[in-house]
Amino acid sequence: MNFSFLYLMGVAGVGIFIFIALSVLILVWLERKVAGHIQSRMGPMRVGWHGLVQTLADMVKLISKESILPAKADKWLFFLAPFVVFIPAYLSYMVIPFAPKLIIRDFNIGLLYFLAIPSISVVGIIMAGWGSNNKYALLGGLRSAAQIISYEIPRALSVVGVVMLAGSMSTVTIVKSQSSIWFILLQPLGFLIYFISTLAEVNRIPFDLPEAESELVAGFHTEYSGIKWSIFMMSEYANVFAGCALCVVLFLGGWHGFLIPKGEPWSSVVSLIWFMVKTLILIFLMMWLRWTLPRFRVDQLMDLSWKVFLPLALINIGLTGLFILGALKLFS
Amino acid sequence: MAEGVFQVAFYLFSTLIIGSALMMVISRSLFYNALFLLVVLLGTAGIYVLLNAEFLAAMQIFVYAGALTVLLLFVIMLTTGRFKKEAKIFHSQSVVGFIVAISLLFLSLFSLNLTSWKIVVGETSHTLQNLANFLFTQYALPFEIASLVLLVALIGAIWLARREEE
Q: Which of A94, A239, A328, B34 is positioned for an S-S bond with B72, CB 3.0–4.6 A?
């Protein structure tokens, strides 16, 4: 280890940041377009081709806006909360393998890292709710904490089947072991639980109770404005992308696909395109769900997690174990 | 070179842990106490990473930083009315607390000195596999007992929280 290592990490850090910023710009535009077309309207059309740079214009507006600090808010908590939410989202990009060799760090326990890191951002949401000194923000923070803790458990259990099949927690090894068959075919139940729990983890409709506008104004970020509010938005979309990307890694074969040339210099570019297309399809699915379904009630949300997903995830682990034993018996 | 980076990282984490542990005790708002506890736990996870125990570090973040601290903050938020006035640092239990703390410190120093630390040299990259092997073979019984204790605590908590039926 020497200083070139630190230098490389610095370059990677800046690279991830630029990637997140760009993908958020595109995803926000995409969300508004999808919403528009689902509701039989055009969505943004004015700025750029079909409103493509609308988000950039909005960004300039948000940065130039006044950042309001509520009179009785806790200054430190209020200021730090957006960053405590954003940094874990940012760190989770470290273990996503976009293409062969295109990964920042291939940890031995990469998957566990990915599942553990976002739990810190809950603390940021609670800090925002408490620091704002506003009852709606406080209730939103509480709901968010309850929801994320509840869905963390089925989410973590749903990937155990994949770990058993791949025999590793390294994200790269998991992708490599799907070269012949994607795990969604062997783990359909795991995929379903993982995808729906991810929807709940990133607080999107039908699970967006922490910011249910008809009850809580805007939930934990009611009091936020300007650049601090946009950091919350940015971390939400960064989490959406990371969650979908990991879903592709775990169940949809990662960078694998057909028509990938072997040994050519552009073959990893084709792999990267495969990875991005799969991730975008999942993100589109999330947006489609968001603009189609109504919101759950709090008790329904908790029932779904504890009484449906948790037992199903446990059954899935048992079935996977039997499947592996059967396969071992058959082929040995 | 690697040694130097390691040492700098170790001292950074240690300062972070000790500093925020101190702040956790001194700070007078319960909410801040819980947040400083989170920093202590994250710093400990950092030390685990330096010791090549990535699995332990991830579990530390998952269980302690993620679940435990959030639960603490949750309780503080739900019972906010009761803790409106700021917590005092010195009160009637200070003397007893001081004695307990000092004796605990000496006890742990004593046991640290008595234990002969075996230094394991060799393959450490498959720590997760080793851990699983030990847990399900050699230490299966203690592992099961620990799970049983947790289960009893879980059922007890549900029993206490349950509403009396008419």
A: B34
